[in-house]
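User: I've been trying to design a sequence by hand for this structure and keep getting stuck. Would you show me what you'd pick, starting by listing the structure so we're on the same page?

Assistant: Good idea, let's start from the same input. This is the structure you sent:
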């Protein structure tokens, strides 16, 4: 499911969801245009994405991935009741 928020012909935000073969749902990508940040579109798109997965796909659980450095996104996700369940370290670079 690709959900798009648009005003006056410009895409302001989107939420791309997917359902995996095991029946789990995920918000695969979410983005808000910098010019529209601070208007609550991120929250609205996350809620719309999970609503789509629940209502249209019949799923009871959804996940998303976020970089731990993205404090703004983490704050948003926590404010809507999400919790951290798994931490994966894909790579780490340390400038010597």
């Amino acid at each position: 499911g690709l959900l798009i928020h648009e005003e006056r012909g410009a895409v302001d935000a989107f939420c791309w969801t997917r359902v995996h073969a095991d029946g789990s749902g995920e918000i695969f990508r979410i983005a808000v245009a910098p010019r529209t940040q601070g208007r609550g579109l991120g929250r609205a798109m996350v809620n719309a994405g999970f609503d789509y997965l629940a209502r249209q796909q019949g799923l009871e659980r959804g996940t998303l991935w976020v970089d731990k450095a993205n404090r703004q996104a983490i704050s948003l996700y926590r404010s809507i009741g999400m919790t951290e369940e798994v931490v994966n370290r894909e790579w780490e670079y340390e400038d010597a």
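That's my pick for every position. To get oriented when you compare it with your attempt: The first strand starts at residue 2 and ends at 7. DSSP finds two helices and four strands in the chain.
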